[in-house]
Design goal:
heterotrimer; A alpha+beta (401); B mainly alpha (564); C mainly alpha (196); A: 401 residues; alpha+beta; 5-stranded mixed β-sheet; 3-stranded mixed β-sheet; 12 helices; 12 strands; C: 196 residues; mainly alpha; Four Helix Bundle (Hemerythrin (Met), subunit A); 6 helices; 73% helix; 0% strand; binds heme-A; binds dinuclear copper ion; binds copper (II) ion
Chain lengths: 401, 564, 196
């Protein structure tokens, strides 16, 4: 019975993906959270840069004489790479140490704690090893006698069994706390719901309550929880934007959920993190965290049907008479394909082809001419159109604001 | 003193005059192919594995060239996928498993004073089955889209997650080669494992009680027992995959209600214990080598044996730590966090016992020991990154990133390959009769050590910066370019080191210093035989009275058996 | 310069039979394979998205089961005969074992024939078909392999090559046969009782 239901859901998702599907597929388990007041507050103090100041605050939190040097060492090692990455201003290149959203932030805190403990173990055990190797090396002036033979000692063995047991208990309890806090957080009422469908090499985003369907570029409002319901149309994928949250897989027949609650606006990059075929590398992800106003404006715009501009009627005609409509949908026209991304508001996106290509007329032209030029393993065929035809198509697509 | 024969029963050399010189090449080849001698089979395994180490290493280099710069076009997406999949599959199944079972084959009988394995013919059969599996896997390069497109070589990661492996998503024969060749070599492995268990339990010489077995034999015994219940789930899952692909079954066919999750579970029920199958024999080698070059008995022998059993036992219940991101319940996640962390306890016992063995010794920095010392540090770090990965929430970030790649290369290369090199430097004189060149060995060691750290230390940071694994290219604006360039350079430093090693193997075969019976002044039974040992190992069955029979002989005033 | 150390050299030294150890190891390995198939079967119970279902098409194979289980008894009896050197009785019981095993295979063949041609259930039909034929087929394959080995022993017996010295080997082989029977108990429970 359950299998049947899942299958229906699968078919629905694959073929017509109507919004009602979501209700079938939603998992009863509550996974959602809004940050508690205090957390929000905490987060606002969070800096854009992972700088020394922030480091000191981490240090204060997990202070202990033995771990301090290690934390600083780790920081110094990571810092150059991070700051270089930040030198580029357009967007934030990914890093798990620059959290901008609640789950990522909690994970960051936990990770620093674990890093400190494991770092401490490394320093102690590594130090002892180094000492032993240097102190007990054989020397030139040594007589040929064998050193005293020691076969073991129960007390010593017991000691170094008990200490790790205690460490494990501490690590386990801290970890368990965060697991439950992130995974079992209840869904707040004002949350935004987004259904994410992984396709071989692109992302489909559906906002069931807002009636929006779009692709590859996710827009969410800042300081509000967004709940992602993860489905897959074909194979396994994984949704990963390091600054916002850990990753969760999109698995066919196995709906998953995750949530984010971004605390600052900006563009966050991520990408598919589960090998899903030849173009797995170019299944990139862009998440735009907008101010509430920006987001409202974006929503309004996306809810409109496609612009119908008589000036590009030729392109539109071409689009609707070529095979394009088999795979692509343009709201308000005859194009209702779901195999490829929805193109209703294509022109509002910065990129095409799951972030791999800039959305400029030239690149669009190149793309339609030969998608494999950008993405070798892409599932969209080259349509064998002439250049003038493609120009008409591009002109049409460019009006889809 | 090296050549002085020990008055131990069985050390008597009654080898017939060497006949090899008079053999034609054909006869020589024939002798190797039809051999059922455990020592020859052991060498065959090891040579076979070293060959594939070079091949899979070359594949890794191709991967590294492609990734050295952003938006690189050295390999196409397809070819890249085949390269890293074949690299991983080869390294695990055609390098790691055979080389460790090769050592087991060579050493287990001779260390317990037996003349051969329990089932010599089964032994030969297992080897050839494994070898055939490997050849079948590489046969996939021929055909398909031709050599340039890398034929039909598997291209979906060594973990082959469903449903990508189903006919719908992987047409052609890529997955057929993968599944069938691994099923075959899996049966070979099963045969060897059974053989080693039977040998260790039923072929020990007089006086060799279980608790007098050298630790290497213990570890091989535990490994083989673990193999029995590890390799078989993979075989079962692969049979299901083959049923899906050839008979139209639906085990992993998500379009007919099948489940992708069940493959995940089956694979990791195999996959996790598998990594301990690989590492335990490596521990075994360290257990033999570290005491000899510290000139001390191993510290806490019973604890070492017990910890190995403990690791094997716990490792069967931790598999889902590879699946923290697939959406298990929070309770499920919590359970696997705990079980995974618990593995750290018996493993810690091992680290501390090695430390205590060094403590108060007279450490000699000979080549085998150098590799073992590096192993200790590297395994420590690798284990700690493993603990970081086992912290589920952090794993949600780190999973499938280069941090994971760094973690497991730290174990697979930093621990296992280092131990294998140590083992080869240590036992080559026994098997060949000549020492490996020590200068070349030091070059090999230092270059490999540097290359290793340049490569794999750097990878951790790429992981922190969000670089996922299995990607054939990345964009310049992600900020991973420099790190990857460093990683690639490290890869080539390793390559030079490996080539030096390969050269040393061949060079010393002809030119090496004659080793004598016991070049390292060691304590286990294999060193009481001539180098190389005669076919029957021992002219008369040896009798032992302690864990270190040769120590007893060399130190009659203070023999070990007094303390047992 | 102390004298040659004295230690008890005459302590008794006996080790387990390598045949038994190996067969037990094989059985452990095989059990793992069966476990995976059984888990898959249980996991997919009721998940098929089209018919036929087990309730509709499966009949409980009582006779087959009785035959296979009693073959365990007959092989055990034959083991006792060879232990005593009673080759004739051994051969008779061995033949009986084989006959019971063959009956099982024939019974399975008939069952499959009905399922395929009457009920239209193939390995391709649905998840039930896939898991059913795989699990039962895997077991049947083991029975066939067992029968082949039994046949080899039978041929040797008939040509007079088997005597009391082969007790050990025969018993090791019998161990395998017992295992195959025990697996059937599990398969039977899962497929015909739980799964229906
Ligand atoms: C030989 C191989 C080997 C070994 C020995 C290990 C050992 C360990 N591994 Fe590793 N691992 C792999 C090979 C190995 N691993 C491979 C190949 C993969 C990736 C597969 C793939 O996806 O392709 C992987 C992936 C992997 C993951 C999944 C990552 C992911 O994909 O998300 C995890 C997560 O928990 C993990 C954890 C561990 C742990 C906890 C250990 C522990 O056994 C380590 C224990 C050791 C220590 C802890 C150090 C010494 C102990 C002390 C000094 C005592 C004090 C310490 C404490 C009390 C903590 N490993
Ligand atoms: C024992 C196991 C083992 C070993 C030793 C290695 C060794 C190395 N590995 Fe590998 N690796 C794996 C097991 C191993 N690996 C596994 C299981 C995976 C996962 C695969 C997957 O995801 O499916 C993986 C994946 C993997 C990746 C990730 C690919 C990806 O996800 O996209 C990378 C990337 O850099 C890499 C690099 C290396 C390097 C540089 C070495 C170096 O240490 C290699 C050094 C050796 C050489 C360089 C050989 C030199 C020899 C020559 C140059 C001579 C050639 C001549 C002839 C052939 C005649 N490995
Ligand atoms: Cu989608 Cu990788
Ligand atoms: Cu694991």
């Amino acid at each position: 019975m359950k299998g049947r239901r899942r299958f229906n859901a699968f078919v629905a998702q694959r073929i017509f993906l109507c919004d009602s599907v979501q209700h079938q597929r939603g998992r009863p388990r509550a996974l959602f959270i809004t940050p508690h007041k205090s957390e929000t507050h905490n987060l606002q103090q969070h800096h854009r840069y992972f700088d020394a100041k922030q480091m000191s605050s981490i240090m204060r939190k997990h202070d202990s004489p033995s771990t301090r040097p290690f934390l600083w060492a780790a920081f110094l090692l990571v810092k150059p790479a991070l700051s270089r990455a930040w030198a580029q201003t357009k967007h934030t290149p990914p890093s798990i140490f620059a959290p901008a959203s609640t789950p990522a932030h909690e994970i960051f805190g936990l990770s620093m704690f674990v890093l400190a403990i494991t770092g401490g173990i490394f320093v102690v055990v590594g130090g002892l090893l180094t000492f032993a190797i240097i102190r007990y090396r054989s020397r030139k002036d040594d007589d040929a006698s064998e050193p005293p033979q020691i076969y073991g000692s129960v007390q010593v063995e017991l000691a170094w069994t008990v200490v790790p047991v205690l460490i494990v208990v501490v690590l386990f309890l801290t970890t368990a706390r965060i697991i439950f806090a992130v995974q079992d957080a209840p869904e707040p009422k004002d949350a935004l719901d987004v259904t994410v469908v992984g396709h071989q090499f692109w992302w489909e985003f559906r906002y069931p309550k807002l009636g929006i369907v779009t692709a590859n570029e996710l827009h969410v409002p800042v300081k509000q929880a967004t709940f992602l319901h993860l489905l897959s149309a074909d194979v396994m994928h994984s949704f990963w934007v390091p600054e916002l949250a850990g990753k969760t897989d999109l698995i066919p027949n196995h709906p998953n959920d995750m949530w984010i609650a971004p605390q600052r606006t900006g563009l966050f990059l991520g990408q598919c993190a589960q090998f899903c075929g030849p173009e797995h590398a170019k299944m990139l992800l862009r998440v735009y965290v907008d101010t509430p106003e920006q987001f409202q404006a974006w929503v309004k715009d996306q809810q409109q049907p496609a612009v119908d501009d008589a000036a590009v009627a030729a392109g539109r005609h071409l689009f609707e008479t070529q095979a394009c409509t088999n795979c692509h949908a343009v709201n308000g026209t005859a194009a209702i394909g779901t195999f490829g991304p929805d193109l209703t508001h294509l022109a509002t996106r910065d990129t095409i082809a799951a972030g791999a290509v800039k959305n400029t007329p030239q690149d669009l032209h190149e793309w339609i001419k030969d998608p494999a030029h950008f993405k070798e393993g892409v599932l969209m065929p080259a349509m064998q159109l002439s250049d003038p035809q493609i120009d008409q198509l591009v002109a049409y697509l460019d009006t889809l604001k | 003193m090296a050549d002085q024969p020990f008055p131990i029963a069985g050390s008597l050399d009654v080898t017939p005059p060497r006949v090899r010189e008079q053999m034609t090449v054909g006869e020589w080849l024939h002798a190797w192919v039809v051999t059922v001698d455990h020592k020859r089979l052991g060498i065959l395994y090891i040579v076979y594995a070293i060959f594939f180490l070079l091949v899979a290493g070359a594949e890794a280099l191709a991967v590294r060239i492609q990734l050295a710069r952003p938006d690189n076009h050295f390999l196409t997406a397809d070819v890249y996928d085949r390269m890293f999949t074949m690299h991983g599959t080869t390294m695990v199944f055609l390098v790691g498993m055979p080389i460790l079972f090769g050592f087991g084959n060579y050493l287990v009988p001779i260390m317990i004073g037996a003349r051969d394995m329990a089932f010599p013919r089964l032994n030969a059969f297992s080897f050839w089955l494994t070898a055939f599996g490997g050849l079948l896997l590489y046969y996939s390069f021929i055909g398909g889209y031709g050599l340039y497109g890398m034929g039909n070589a598997p291209d979906v990661m060594w973990l082959a997650y469903a449903p990508l492996t189903e006919k719908a998503f992987s047409p052609g024969h890529t997955m057929d080669y993968w599944a069938l060749s691994l099923i075959l070599s899996g049966f070979g492995t099963l045969g060897t494992a059974i053989n080693i268990i039977a040998t260790a339990l039923s072929m020990r010489c007089r006086g060799m009680t279980l608790f007098r077995m050298p630790l290497f034999v213990w570890l091989m015994l535990v490994t083989s027992a673990l193999t029995l219940i590890t390799i078989t789930p993979l075989t079962a899952a692969q049979i299901m995959l083959v049923i899906d692909r050839y008979l139209g079954g639906h085990f992993f066919d998500t379009q007919a209600g099948g489940s992708a999750m069940i493959w995940l579970h089956f694979f990791w029920i195999f996959g996790h214990p598998e990594v301990y199958v690989l590492v335990l024999p490596a521990f075994g080698m360290a257990n033999e080598i570290i005491p000899v070059f510290s000139r001390k008995a191993i510290f806490g022998y019973p604890a070492m044996a017990a910890a190995s059993i403990g690791i094997a036992f716990v490792s069967t219940g931790v598999w889902a730590h590879h699946m923290f991101t697939v959406g298990m319940t929070s309770v499920g996640n919590t359970f696997f966090v705990l079980s995974t962390m618990v593995v750290g306890i018996p493993t810690g016992i091992k680290i501390f016992n090695w430390l205590a063995t060094l403590w108060g010794g007279k450490i000699q920095f000979r080549p085998p020991m150098l590799f073992c010392l590096a192993f200790l540090f590297q395994f420590l770090i690798a284990g700690l990154t493993g603990i970081m990965l086992s912290v589920a929430p952090w794993n949600w970030q780190l999973h499938n990133s280069y941090f994971v790649i760094a973690h497991f290369h730290y174990v697979l290369v930093g621990a296992i390959v280092f131990c294998i090199f140590a083992g080869i430097y240590y036992w080559y004189p026994k098997a060949i009769g000549r020492m490996l060149d020590e200068t070349l060995a030091k070059w090999h060691f230092w270059l490999f050590l540097i290359g290793f750290h340049v490569t794999f230390d750097t990878m951790h940071f790429a992981g922190f910066l969000g670089m996922p694994r299995s990607i054939y290219t990345y964009e310049a604006d992600r900020g991973w370019g420099t790190l990857n360039m460093i990683v690639s350079i490290g890869g080539f430093i390793q390559a030079i080191a490996v080539l030096i090693f390969a050269y040393n193997l061949i060079h010393s075969y002809f030119r090496g210093r004659i080793a004598g019976n016991d070049p390292w002044d060691a304590w286990t039974l294999e060193w009481s035989t001539p180098s190389p040992p005669p076919v029957y190992n021992f002219a008369t069955d040896p009798v032992v009275h302690s864990r270190r029979p040769l120590w007893d002989l060399k130190h009659p005033e203070d023999p070990d058996w007094k303390y047992e | 310069m102390s004298a040659i150390p004295t230690f008890p050299t005459a302590e008794p030294w006996s080790l387990p039979s390598r045949g038994r150890v190996a067969m037990l190891s094989l059985i452990i390995g095989e059990s793992a394979i069966f476990t995976i198939f059984v888990v898959a079967y249980i996991y997919y119970i009721g998940k098929s998205i089209s018919g036929p279902t087990p309730q509709q098409v499966l009949d409980i194979p009582f006779f087959n089961t009785v035959c296979l289980l009693s073959s365990s008894v007959t092989i055990w009896l034959s083991e006792r005969q060879i232990e005593r050197g009673n080759i004739k009785a051994f051969a008779a019981l061995w033949a009986l074992t084989m006959a019971l095993g063959i009956e099982f295979i024939v019974g399975t063949a008939l069952e499959w024939h009905k399922l395929i041609y009457v009920d239209g259930l193939t390995i391709h039909t649905n998840l039930f078909g896939t898991t059913f034929y795989s699990l039962v087929g895997l077991h049947a394959t083991h029975v066939v392999v067992g029968l082949l080995m039994l046949t080899v022993v039978m041929i040797f017996t008939l040509t007079g090559h088997i005597n009391i010295r082969h007790t050990e080997r025969v018993q090791v082989l019998a161990l395998y046969w017992h295992f195959v029977d025990a697996v059937w108990v599990v398969v039977f429970t899962v497929v015909y009782i739980v799964g229906r």
